[in-house]
Design goal:
The protein has 2 domains: about 260 residues, Vaccinia Virus protein VP39 (Rossmann fold), CATH 3.40.50; about 210 residues, no CATH class. Helix content is about 25%, strand content about 20%. Strands 1, 2, 3, 4, 5, 6, 7, 8, 9, 10 and 11 form an 11-stranded mixed β-sheet that branches. Strands 13-22-20-21 form a 4-stranded antiparallel β-sheet. Helix 4 packs parallel to helix 5.
Length: about 500
């Protein structure tokens, strides 16, 4: 199957492939904002590497038509676009013919996968809207094709990182880096609509924030954050417009503009706080930034580093329960809405943190999770499971369901024979004390101390495991909620899945 057939497969719709077309009025507004039309008429070459239906290219022609230019004397040879889906390419040529009455040069709007594209187009300006999705969301047949490119264009240190913490790296960053490196003239500019995760998210996109491809540096010159405006219908992704300059060293602060509720652009500043490849913190003034940069990090043993909760990898109906009742002989009866009267060994069933627990003086368990693991954090061996009649009976009942779960890391465990494995389980899960906070979709940082082998619930909760109560109490006293709140708020991720995940919290801690 060719690359083009992968993407022409109807099972991969536009949404899945991150195809968010820029409305023509928005494309026109961007071109006029940066004076690109005048630069094009004066001799500059424009290139959209992922052109879709060609709305950015059309915008130049539309502006010319509205300003009374002759449609037959436009410098169309200085407009270029590449698009991998043939149906979108054909739509573009139809628009040029039917709306503007022109025969756009076929050699200038090319049907090709830009990542496999090697024609020597050298542009003064890049402009466009690369697909908004991350590596994990790409079609499985396409991943092996592009995986080496993330390394080739400076986004990861090696391809193996894409199986680990960088698996959620933004695909758009690859388009930006490749096009700037290969298709932008020295000193040229690139202007792209992009997901704001490239600038504001931790971890996976740190390679992009090196602002370098091989020996070519580029700089982010300004960012426009459309936080409070819905420019693209039915899109929940946080997005913005960024302008880059090739052969320029990155300096800070980056001018950062954000629209308020009245659609007025407010001028702010963007700086990384602890290291140059860290997420950008958004502040109103230098004083606010200086306060953030003076954050006194908390010193903790490595065993206490922030963690996410346990992850069933889509099998909550097997591992998570709504009721728990102790039975004789160390057994427990548990239920959920899918199963009733399940008997399991008590020692493998643990209380699971719920939202209500964060507002209770004496937290009460409302959910429970089965962890078929030893206190060392390793999945039980089958011989250990067989020694527990109730456990082996229960797991065998769900064997096929558990083997069908997806994910590279999990499948690695399953192929080794541990089909009852989960993610996010280690010795840290079995420390008796945990400092826990809500890390998903919140706006306020509110840590609490839980004792008694409570477990975090996937990405909803993050925690620092504590091996002693004294360490837990001391750490909680040092974890100043208002100072942590200021840092988290500066990252502009309130209300999202990236509110206070472990990667962000690690920036505030020194491990020894």
């Amino acid at each position: 199957m060719s690359i083009f057939n992968i993407f022409d497969d109807q099972s991969h719709n536009n949404s899945l492939l991150g195809a968010v077309f820029t409305p023509l009025p928005a494309a026109v507004a961007v071109i006029e904002k940066f004076g690109l039309f005048e630069k094009w008429i004066a001799g500059a070459t424009m290139f959209d590497p992922t052109a879709g239906e060609g709305n950015f290219i059309e915008a130049f022609v539309s502006i010319a038509a509205n300003r009374g230019f002759s449609m037959h004397n436009l410098p169309l040879e200085r407009l270029y676009g590449v698009e991998m889906k043939a149906v979108y390419v054909e739509r573009f040529f139809q628009k040029m013919r039917n709306i503007y009455g022109i025969a756009f040069p076929t050699r200038n709007f090319i049907c090709s996968d830009f990542l496999l594209f090697n024609e020597n187009i050298q542009a003064d300006y890049l402009i466009g809207n690369p697909p908004w999705l991350n590596f994990t969301e790409l079609p499985d047949l396409y991943k092996p094709v592009v995986k080496p490119m993330f390394h080739r264009y400076g986004l990861v240190a090696n391809a193996q990182e894409l199986l680990l913490g960088s698996s959620r790296i933004d695909f758009s960053g690859l388009i930006v880096n490749k096009s700037i490196y290969e298709n932008l003239k020295p000193g040229g500019e690139a202007i792209f609509f992009l997901p704001m995760s490239l600038f504001l998210n931790d971890g996976a996109n740190r390679g992009f924030r090196a602002y370098k491809v091989k020996d070519v540096h580029f700089a982010t010159k300004e960012i426009y954050d459309y936080k409070n405006q819905k420019l693209f219908p039915n899109v929940s992704t946080r997005y913005g417009l960024a302008r880059f300059e090739r052969n320029s060293l990155q300096t800070f602060p980056v001018p950062y503009y954000q629209q308020n509720e009245d659609n007025e652009w407010i001028s702010l500043s963007a700086n990384p706080v602890f290291a140059v490849d860290n997420p950008l913190s958004i502040t109103q003034n230098d004083e606010e930034y200086v306060t953030l940069s003076m954050f006194e990090k908390i010193c903790l043993p490595k065993s206490a580093q922030p963690r996410q909760g346990v992850n069933t990898c889509g099998a909550n109906e097997v591992f998570v329960f709504d009721t728990f009742k102790k039975m004789p002989n160390g057994l427990a009866k548990v239920t959920n809405k899918f199963q009733q009267g399940i008997i399991l060994p008590q020692k493998y069933v643990f209380p699971l943190i719920a939202t209500n627990n964060f507002n209770e003086k004496k937290p009460k368990a409302r959910k429970w999770v089965l962890l078929p693991y030893s206190p060392t954090g390793k999945a039980l061996e089958w011989t250990d499971i067989e020694a527990e009649t109730s456990l082996v009976t229960y797991l065998q009942k769900h064997e096929m369901r558990l083997k069908m779960r997806k994910g590279t890391m999990l499948q690695g465990q399953i192929k080794k024979g541990y089909w009852w494995a989960m993610l996010g389980v280690g010795p840290y899960c079995f420390d008796n004390h945990k400092i826990v906070w809500e890390s998903f979709g919140k706006k306020h940082f509110h840590p609490i101390l839980l004792s008694g082998n409570w477990q975090g619930n996937q990405a909803m909760h993050a925690f620092m495991p504590m091996q002693t109560l004294d360490l837990a109490l001391e750490t909680l006293s040092l974890l100043n909620p208002s100072k942590v709140q200021s840092y988290l708020s500066s990252l502009q991720m309130e209300g999202t899945c990236n509110w206070a995940q472990p990667g962000k919290m690690k920036k505030l801690i020194t491990l020894f």
